From TrEMBL:
Xref: PANTHER family: D-ALANYL-D-ALANINE CARBOXYPEPTIDASE (PTHR21581), TRAFFICKING PROTEIN PARTICLE COMPLEX SUBUNIT 12 (PTHR21581:SF6)
Binding site residues for substrate: 227
Coiled-coil residue spans: none
Pfam families for this protein: PBP5_C, Peptidase_S11
Name the UniProt record assigns to this protein: serine-type D-Ala-D-Ala carboxypeptidase
Organism from which the protein derives: Sedimentibacter saalensis
Reactions catalysed: Preferential cleavage: (Ac)2-L-Lys-D-Ala-|-D-Ala. Also transpeptidation of peptidyl-alanyl moieties that are N-acyl substituents of D-alanine
Length: 385
């Protein structure tokens, strides 16, 4: 049975699962043991093969580490230029590495390059210790964040992806954490850089040339991010996100027998998605949708915006003209108004059926008119007349 289907289609406040018609990609046509394709905007599953099977993820594990780093950078806790001291524990990590020396200093930026491009285990442990004081503390944070994201079949034991019997996740869960990472752009540059280098050692006298393990960088249009992984237990793995026009998709393959298979199959999955589906964006986040009158405000009216894209993910043959948007705003709005409190909604329809609702907000805080100024401008003006 063809499985290019849509499950878990939640249009914001709508709770019903919608199924998009099937297309030509069949699970049986893939050699990878597990795979999934999702829409990055709402998490809708478009294709799956054993997406909930618990498997070893190898270095794809580091997507969660990169997410935690990105979140700490976003709230100002760490910066690219900050320096950290490499511990004996970090320097002693095996597997993929950049051969850091114990007690040398490095910058956060160099560690991000090493993790994103070479998948360096020593750099990963160094960042885990830098952020949380220990690898164990970082692993706890990774598992806590996984639960928050709904990664219900994931359990991390380390920050590197090196084999551990209980270090398991699923293709679907990997897609979820990749989706979350796309909210930030702190590591995009490094994930999409083909070649760079860092100098390591206490004297910084050893150049480590970094060649990205993700060869999609050179041959896949619209690639946004990607992370490879390999161990003998996990085999070849890959998570990749790509964008074309207004559509962003995330594909994951696990358990491929060769690196050639993982790259070929992830491109096949992404291509099928872009060929058959698209996002129609009616209003982008922050666009002025309309104006609304307001009483007792500094100004007589204000701009109305949405804090998210107003969009619909659908089959590629649909057009924007097939849909209707209705705007419902509260009546007799009175200042003050907060930009964080909704004052209405946009409702999306197709063929008379409601597809979703999107909250609308003032573009900025609306201050109440000063009473004395209001009196001078209005009451006295009328008296003078």
């Amino acid at each position: 049975m063809k499985k290019f289907i849509a499950i878990f289609f939640l249009m914001l406040l709508a709770a019903n699962t919608a199924v998009v018609p099937v297309y030509g990609l069949e699970a049986g046509s893939l050699q990878s043991r597990s795979a999934v394709l999702i829409n990055a905007d709402d998490g809708q599953v478009l294709f799956e093969k054993n997406m909930s099977d618990k498997m070893a993820p190898a270095s794809i594990t580091k997507i969660m580490l990169l997410l935690l780093i990105s979140e700490k950078m976003d709230n100002g806790e760490i910066k690219l230029e900050q320096e950290l001291t490499i511990s004996e524990n970090a320097a002693g990590m095996g597997g993929s590495q950049i051969y850091l020396e114990a007690y040398e200093t490095q910058t956060v930026e160099n560690m991000l390059k090493a993790i994103s491009m070479r998948s360096a285990n020593d750099a990963s442990v160094a960042m885990a210790e830098f952020m949380y004081g220990s690898v164990e503390g970082c692993v706890k944070a990774m598992n806590d964040r996984a639960k928050e994201l709904g990664m219900n079949n994931t359990h991390f034991v380390n920050v590197t992806g090196l084999p551990e019997p209980e270090h398991l996740t699923t293709a679907y869960d990997i897609a979820l954490m990749t989706k979350e990472l796309l909210k930030y752009d702190y590591v995009n540059e490094y994930m999409l850089t083909w070649m760079d280098s860092v100098y390591v050692g206490k004297e910084k006298d050893s150049e480590q040339v970094l060649v990205n393990t993700n060869r999609l960088i050179n041959n896949y249009e619209g690639l946004l991010a990607g992370k490879t992984g390999f161990t003998n237990e996990a085999k070849y793995c890959l998570s990749a996100a790509a964008k074309r026009n207004d559509t962003t998709l995330i594909a994951v393959v696990l358990g491929s027998d060769t690196t050639k298979i993982r790259f070929a199959e992830i491109q096949k999955i992404l291509n099928e998605g872009f060929a058959n589906y698209k996002n129609i964006i009616f209003h982008s986040k922050g666009d002025v949708i309309r104006t609304s009158p307001v009483y007792c405000g500094v100004n007589d009216d204000f701009n109305v915006v949405s804090k998210e894209n107003i969009y619909y993910f659908t089959e590629s043959n649909c057009k924007a003209e097939d849909f209707n948007l209705e705007y419902v705003l509260e009546e007799n709005l009175k200042a003050p108004l907060s930009k964080d409190v909704a004052i209405g909604k946009a409702v999306l329809y197709k063929d008379g059926k409601m597809l979703g609702e999107y909250k609308l907000y003032p573009e900025k805080d609306i201050e109440k008119e000063n009473f004395f100024k209001f009196y001078l401008n209005n009451v006295l003006e009328n008296i003078i007349r």
